[in-house]
Amino acid sequence: KQEVTQIPAALSVPEGENLVLNCSFTDSAIYNLQWFRQDPGKGLTSLLLIQSSQREQTSGRLNASLDKSSGRSTLYIAASQPGDSATYLCAVRWNTNAGKSTFGDGTTLTVKP
Amino acid sequence: ETGVTQSPTHLIKTRGQQVTLRCSSQSGHNTVSWYQQALGQGPQFIFQYYREEENGRGNFPPRFSGLQFPNYSSELNVNALELDDSALYLCASSPTGAQEAFFGQGTRLTVV
pLDDT (tens digit, 9 = 90+) per residue, A51-61? Predict the structure, then answer.
């Protein structure tokens, strides 16, 4: 069964800290992986998309990596700020059904001033 | 701003009623997908439409149905509402099914 897991479910850090969010997936035959941010009660904002052939993507203070062989992706946030507080979701599309995204349950990040 | 607009933003319905949720995608985005997100969980795939035809469905009963129109708008219809249908419903569009998905802000449905 193709599943996506995000651990921990919640994370609290002081402002300025660098942090890593984890995403694990059960099947390495992925098409792409996308990281999203979700503020409470809101929709999803796309942060980074990594294609199967790529190892990482960067945007500003964010860096996402992909290791298909180990079934893992990480989202690195540098110099965290209170405005980074949100839930971060990863979504995987597999080759067997590339039109459907399977999401993890997210990691809720709180950055304390 | 993703260019994907959903309406209404909030909705309260009574158990057993029917509801229609709407989504307006970006021009040129031929694929629209709908997701259900329960509180504290990740979104669950309901179905996908490509050029007005359903071409993928998740583990949802037939009372969840949809339509996609040539003007890049779409609808999610849910019949015989149940309390467990209370959730945030998200619409996502992309040029084709496998490219980067852009999500709307969602419709919060509460069934009482």
Answer: 999 999 999 99
